[in-house]
Amino acid sequence: MKHNKKNAALFLPLAVAMLSANTGCTLQRMVKQAEKQEIEVSPNPLVANGEEVVFEMKATLPEKMLKKNQDYRYKIDVVYEAAGQQREHLGALNFDIGNYLYENNRPTITQEFSFPYAPHKNKGRLLIQGTAIDKRKRDKVAYTPEEQVATGLNTTALLMVRSNDYTYVPDNYKTIAEGPASIEFYFDENTFTTKSYLGENLPVLDQYAMDTVKLQKIKVIGSQAPNEKGTDLAQKRAKALADYYRSKVSLLDYSGKKIEISTETEPTGWATLLDRVNKSALPKAQKQEVAAILQGAGSDKQKVDALQQSAAFDYIRHYVYPTMRFARVEVDYNRARKSDYELYLLARRIADDSISAQVLTAEELQYAATLTPLLAERRKLYEAAVKTTDKWPAYYNLGVVYTEMARKEYRPKAKEALLDKAIHNLNFAGFRNPTAEVNYALASAYHLRGEREKALQIYDYAIKLGGEQELLHRIFTDKAALEMEMGLYDEAIRSLTYSGDDYQTNMNLGLSYLLKENYEGARQYYEKALELKEEDPLAHYSLAVLGARMQNEGMVRIHLRRAIQRDRSYMERAFDDPEFAAYHGKQSFREGLVR
Fold first, then answer.
1. Which end of the chain is more exposed for a tag (fewer CB within 10 A), N or C?
2. What b-and-e string marks burial along 230-255, b requiring 16 or more CB atoms within 10 Å of the CB?
3. Full-prediction pTM beyond 0.70?
């Protein structure tokens, strides 16, 4: 048959129309086949864990859906719709070649998704929608109906108790005006060389070397840990700092002041170690084990060997020995003090920038800041103290001010900016005064900021620096709360071993055991928390959740009612909580909601 160009021109639109129609039919067939796709979401309901909601989705398509349609692709979009129809696109399962595997001859993708947690997302739906796309002509698409695959959020994992309670450096301006200043220096194991890098106090010591006074009395006390080599490390550490101070005075002092420097050592032995262990956060049973070893018969080597085999040794090696490798410099001053009224007036003028901050000493500025309740004024005074003194309490207290301002701020971006400033200043405080208290505040600021890995690292560093038992308990309890937020429940339980026996410890142990499905263990700790804090609504609500998981309707009724009687907000929470979904039609649940 002879080819006719005119006829070809006539048939071209018809061919395009047929191709378009064929494309449309193919896309619709894919969408129709997708009705048989299988979607699994784990966990379901979704679970809020710390700052994130993380879940896994598995999608399985019909066996021949992709094989017969090589010119077409298919994807499944995943969306979370919070209350008020606020939608968040979480990503997509793209069934492109290389992205999926075959299970029982069916194309399958398993993928993890996550989105940031916020309370308004508690009531919500996880939705999916499939899209068939023509690879040759991407504007040709067809959609499956939108499908709900999970409902709401389970927020049980958020029922932990946090403290992050750090406040201003206790002011000693009035009470111990004549007392000595004390500066701590820590050393690496088996060394006595001074360090000028991060976390050391040499710049602070330099400031004392420049002070204009008639007489300076300096005492340097050295110490060493029992596991260090040699018996003269403590004396060498004291001498190294004394020599350093003399050299700095000769370089920096122009007043011709007289200095008197003495050195001494703290006793190092099993008695000192036992004293440190007794003040540590170790459990009572482990303290008793260490005491039995150190006070018992046997040579020093036998005691060392027994100590290394003890349950407490890992803690001692990481958290006790480092606190014994130090030298302390004590500087004795005697300065005149102004009245509170005079200090307050001068402080107000400094805050208003009408006079120089240098009219007050560092101690006077610190004390003056405590005389005003206004955070804006305190901030200006501590900023002035930072500029004029460069000493750690000024940085620390300025960090506390910014934290307090952040706690009162409701705008997320502004809150983050204030916490950034708090972290900046607490970091500088930590450089100048590397103590457990300062680093606990820094870790807490990172924790509040949501920088969990950094917070965990600094909590651990704070513990290693050592401190009073009450402080160590607080650090371990908040470290455990952070580990729970990160899903590290075994690590959290280990930290709670060293956190004492208070309300927060028992509440978080209860939650850890609940999430690990050790329900009897969880019940024991929650009931202990109620003994320590009678009629606490959170403890009662947690026991109601536990009752739901144990299918104990009596526990649900009793504890839910008591929680709501103490705090009405738990009624709405219980209605929305997936933990009680199976109980909504039951009398025990209705009775629990009656005040």
1. N
2. eeebbbbbbbbbbebbeebbeeebee
3. no
